[in-house]
Design goal:
about 300 residues; alpha/beta; three-stranded antiparallel sheet
């Protein structure tokens, strides 16, 4: 198979295509690249001729990519990210690096693991930062594999190739309630679980949690008292009501140590929830990324 000669192709067109894909607007893409609207239009026209495809169709929403453009972007974005990475000055020493790692995770990681991670990070890499991003509607976003984020914590990796992951533990489910709950002592029956009102955790993106999935798979329904967005808010509600809340055991132990709540085993035998540390395959060879991955595995697995 002969290699395509890149001599006749303007590689600047690749970043123009990427900017239009990511902004959805020719004008916004121009602002990002410092190019005028006519220059952007001319560049897009050259790309259309080169690839023999319209690439984008104008609509009320902006520039809608064609199927060819969408498929090409999935191939091109990781390659451009790797080129940028290769051109970034490398500081491989964690103690002097000023890198910021981005991590897609939910309230669980922030509540249970962040307090243990940050002192270790400060000692080993005082100038390194951590930027936590919320989970998307589907959990880990589909474009995670393009290298826009360094890590994710979730119970399943996004579909398809382009991601690696490491199991950092499993979580059983427990049910927490007020220490003074009038009807529940140390054990909880399924009948009690069905009769009592519940506090549910609902993320801002309405992303379905693994707890929701497990309970619906086992035909367990919960009578709603309140839906909150954070585990700690749920614990505050439980302190002052007779409601129950189903949480991973690690979260239950954390909340018990800080709020007037107690925990009971879940009244059904359910499969444990996987905790996976996930990262884009394209970042796996980056030495500083590898260093931070080891730190995360060590901290979360403990």
């Amino acid at each position: 198979k002969s290699r395509l000669n890149l001599k006749g192709i303007d590689l600047n067109l690749l970043t123009i295509f990427e900017a239009v894909m990511e902004t959805g607007q020719l004008s916004q893409a121009g602002v990002r690249l410092g190019l005028s609207q006519p220059a952007m239009s001319a560049a897009l026209q050259r790309l259309r001729v080169t690839l023999n495809d319209p690439l984008f169709i104008r609509s009320r929403q902006g520039m809608e990519p064609t199927p060819r453009a969408q498929a090409w972007y999935l191939e091109l974005a990781p390659a451009l990210a790797q080129i940028r990475q290769s051109l970034t000055p490398k500081n491989l020493d964690p103690s002097t690096s000023e890198r910021t790692f981005t991590m897609v995770c939910g309230d669980y990681f922030e509540t249970v693991h962040l307090a243990a991670l940050l002192p270790r990070l400060q000692r080993a890499a005082p100038h390194v930062g951590l930027d936590l991003q919320p989970l998307s509607t589907e959990g880990v976003p589909a474009d995670f594999k393009l290298g826009k984020n360094d890590f994710a914590i979730y119970f399943q990796p996004p579909a398809g190739p382009g991601v690696d992951y490491h199991a950092v533990g499993k979580e059983e489910l427990v049910v927490i309630c007020s220490e003074k709950h009038p009807r529940i002592k140390k054990k909880l029956s399924l009948k009690q679980f069905n009769q009592e009102k519940h506090v549910l955790i609902s993320t801002s993106s309405q992303q379905k949690t693994r707890i929701d999935e497990l309970l619906s798979e086992h035909k367990v329904e919960r009578k709603l008292l309140a839906k909150v967005s954070h585990f700690s808010s749920a614990a505050m509600v439980l302190e002052n009501t007779d409601a129950l809340c189903t949480v991973p055991a690690g979260m239950g132990a954390f909340l018990k140590s800080r709020f007037a709540v107690k925990s009971c085993p879940f009244p059904l035998t359910l499969p444990p929830i996987d905790k996976l540390l996930i990262w884009p395959t394209m970042l796996a060879e980056d030495p500083l990324h590898q260093w931070f991955k080891e730190l995360l595995i060590e901290t979360i697995s403990n």
